[in-house]
Amino acid sequence: HPACSPALQAARSYARPVTRKKKDIPSQLDDLPPTMLKKDYANLPIVDSMDDVVKRLLSLEMASQKEKMKIKIQQLVEKVRRSPSDNGSFEVQGKLKPGKILIRMFEEHLQRHPKDKNNRRRMLMDVDRRRKLLAYLRRVRFDTFENTCQQLGIQYSLPPPYTRRVTKRWLVKKAFCIKVFQEKQKLKAAEKAAEKLKQRKERQARARAGPERQE
Known about the structure:
Layout: H1 6-15, H2 52-58, H3 65-80, H4 90-93, H5 96-112, H6 117-140, H7 142-152, H8 168-214
Helix pairs in contact: 5-6, 6-7
C-alpha cells in the first residue's frame, strides 16, 4: 500500500465503525433449569418412559419465553398460596405475580433499549396497577399483604400526600373562583332578605285585614 499523509490516516481511523460490547443483562428466567419440562407436560405419567430426545424437545431448553413465564408464575403462586388447595384467594387470582414478571421484563428490555418510550409507558401503567392492588390488599388483609410482599420481593411505599404546584395561572383561577363564590353568596343573601321582607309585608297586610273584617 502506498504511504499516505498523517491527516488521511487519522480520517480513516475516525471513520472506522465502533464496535460496542453488548451488555450482559441477567434475566429473571435464568434461574429456571433447562432440563425442566414445560408446564403442560410436567405431570404426565409417561414422562419417565420417554426418550431423551423427546424429553429435550419438551424441556425448557426448546421452550419459548411465554412458556418459561408460565413456569415462573406457577412458582410464585406456590410461594403466596395459603394452602395446597388454595385457588381462589386474591393473591393467587390477582395480577400481582404476572405484574411482577412483566415489570421485570420491561426493566430488562429498557436496559437494552433505553429510548423505547412505548414500553416505558406500559411499564409505568403496570407499576401503577400493581400499586393499587397492593393498596387494596393492605387495607383488607394486612398480614397477607406483608407475606405477599416478602415472598415476591416487592418493596411497597406509601403514596405521597397530595400537593399542587403553585403557578400564576392557578393563583388567578383560585382568585376568580373565590370572587365568583362571594358574588354568589351576596346574591343569595339579597334574595333571602327580599323573601323575608315580602313575607313580613304579607303578614302585616293580613294583620290589617283582620280588624276590618271584624268591623
